[in-house]
Amino acid sequence: MFIKPKIKREIYLDHAATTYCSPEVVAAMLPYFTEVYGNPSSLYHKGREANGVLNDSRRTVAKLVNALPENIIFTGGGSESDNLAIYGVARAHESRGKHIITTTIEHHAIIHPLEDLQKQGWEVTYLKVDEEGFVKVEDVVKAIRPDTVLVSVMYANNEVGTIEPIADIGREILKYRKENNTTYPFFHTDACQAAGYINLDVEKLHVDLMTVNGSKMYGPKGVGMLYVRRGVRLKPLIVGGGQERRLRAGTENVPAIVGFAKAFELAQQQIESESKRVGDLTAFMWKELQEKIPKLKLNGPELGDRRLPNNLNVTFIDVEGEAMLLYLDEYGIMCSTGSACTSESLDPSHVLLAMGLPYEYSHGSLRFTFGHCNSKKDVEYIIKYLPDVIKQLREISPVNMGNVKHAKYKK
Amino acid sequence: MTDKSVKITDPKQPVDIRSTTGGGGWLYTDTVKDHFFNPRNFMRYGEEETFKHNAMGRVGSPACGDEMVLWLNIDPKTEKIAECRWRTFGCGSAIASTSALSEMVVENGGMPIDEALKIKPQDILNRLGGLPDRKVHCSVLGDKALQAAVNDYFRQTGQHTRIVTAGSKVIDADLHITDHDIEEAVLEGAKTLEDLQKKLKIGIINKESLPAIEDLLRYYQEKYYG
After folding, report:
1. CB under 8 Å to A154, separation ≥6 — which residues?
2. Within an 8 Å CB–CB cutoff, is residue A366 touching chain B?
3. Fold of the domain spanning A36-269
4. Which one of B5, B91, B141 would you mutate to disrupt binding with A, by most A Cβ within 10 Å of its Cβ?
5. What is the ipTM metric for this complex?
6. Which of B63, B68, B87 sits opposite A360 (nearest CB)?
7. What single DSSP character describes residue B14?
């Protein structure tokens, strides 16, 4: 009963997990593995050459986020940047206060360090989000206390694509600092998912710290950056040779940094055209899904400018996510799910739950995130097979929920 | 292929759904894959009306991530399971383990219900050629559904004394946490007292229950992962 496709395509729809590294980026990186391999800290020619390209990359990236080169710290990726922002601020400013504000839908690279700090006596306020995943600006302001040292709110959510009002929050925090004549709290945003789809101007966003990583914008994995505004002291996570303004020791990963800068540059150039292109694909797929498959629910905001253009997160009611995922994998379609079965904790996605989605809905969610390599043909292929997969799994499923929120299944 | 989903038995191993031994192969054994893509004996649409059965068991709920319904046609003379149908809401291994169970109980002329009551999660696991550690809890519903169905048969036929009651014991009276809750938590991956407390909040106010909780934790760890 498993109908094999005549021509099996390979369709990657998990660009929010990671992207491929674009050939242009790889080409830009190559010389720095084998030719310009010096340690940027060395004084001789080969070292200076590497240092030169490191500086170039830093300038490139700084310009893209409207910052100064000295405000850019290169790291080993998004998680490290997030960790550095949280622990770095917390440890350098704990004499000032031990309170941090964040949201319930952050990435685990934010949540886990905060949970760790809570064990060490810190207080953390987790702001609730509405059913589309938005945090309210006034809630952030209300949560600020005299001992708050940091506010961290993600720019765009990785699971449902909600774009948070970062600039508004930033402005309100500035206002608070001015009115209270204080430099606290600092404001951090994780912009890993936003990069490539939204402009990341730190001045317009009024952020003091910002995380960006390479592997979500067709750059290499294992490299990212943390923007740190002048005057924001941090305690490093990795100490040693004093690289990156003593904030991140270790010989700089020059090829990766070059690749990161190149990828960021390319992504920035294509923001408008690519947003439009993938936005159309997402809209087309959602329209087709609604026509072909009954009992669906869109998770997150309505498609439009309040949501990342490449994100489509849908609950297929009465079916479980991992089962769908495995079937789709047989058709060459790759996506992800908020179901417990693929998480570490056996709890479904904390983001979907935080948005008030019932457990049974969270288990049946699939996330499709489009990218460069996707075309309309891909969507047509999915639409050809997905309805039957859902039909088959619904036939196996004993659950038949009424299309009403929180409906209880009658025996 | 099968080596890619060897059951990791060391509970100290980090919980991970990724294969730790293989390359790009499947997470599950070929048997699991076969049952998943070609499920046996499931209740098709419309068949509910016509399928003759004298027992039904339902366990789990979609909110927990797994729900399973089992229909049995038990021959009252021989007390063997003549036919079986099922439906499962759950992940790949939950569907595969129900399908495998449905084969086990009807093959060779049908399994006597006394024997069926003795089926343990491990038996289903063996049949499937193992499951990744963290997936073990999915196969546990199968034996529970089977027990529920057989109990239903006893009830229907007035044999109330034969009903198997899995007695649950209250461990933490303040929170009304039973041994079953601890069993569930272990199956969901709790390996230490801290994990259990995080999940169930047990023994935090009521410290006297701690030794009993630790005993049960050890017992269920042994039972499922030992």
Report:
1. A103, A105, A106, A107, A110, A164, A189, A190, A191, A193
2. no
3. Aspartate Aminotransferase; domain 2 (3.40.640)
4. B91
5. 0.78
6. B63
7. P
pLDDT score, position A128: 97
**Rg of chain A over CA atoms, in angstroms?**
22
Give the Cα separation of A184 and A151 in Å (integer). 9
Residue A242: which residues within 8 A CB-CB, separation 6 or more? Answer: A249
Residue ranges per structural domain of chain A? 11-20+271-396, 36-269
Select the residue of A327, A360, A398 nearest B88 (Cβ to Cβ). Answer: A398
Sole residue written with tokens 């063996």 = B126
Q: What is the nearest CA distance from A390 to chain B, expressed in angstroms?
A: 12
Taking the Cβ of residue B36 and every Cβ of chain A, the question of whether any pair is shorter than 8 Å is answered with yes
Domains identified in chain B and CATH numbers: 2-162 (3.90.1010.10), 170-225 (1.10.10.1100)
Return the biggest CA–CA distance within chain B. 55
- pLDDT tens figures, A50-70: 999 999 999 999 999 999 999
3-state secondary structure A240-282: CCCHHHHCCCCCCCHHHHHHHHHHHHHHHHCHHHHHHHHHHHH
Residue from A2, A112, A341 whose CB has the most chain B CBs within 10 Å, to mutate? A341
Is residue B36 within 8 A of residue A326, CB to CB? The reply is yes
- Residue A206 scores a pLDDT above 50: yes
Catalytic annotation, residues of A: 341
**pLDDT tens column, A397-410:** 988 875 433 333 33
Q: Which CATH number fits domain A11-20+271-396: 3.30.200.20, 3.10.580.10, 3.90.1150.10, 3.20.20.70?
A: 3.90.1150.10
Cα separation, B72 vs B106, in Å, equals 10
Helix (H, G, I), strand (E, B) or coil at B73: strand
Given the residues B96, B101, B119, B138, the one annotated as active site: B138
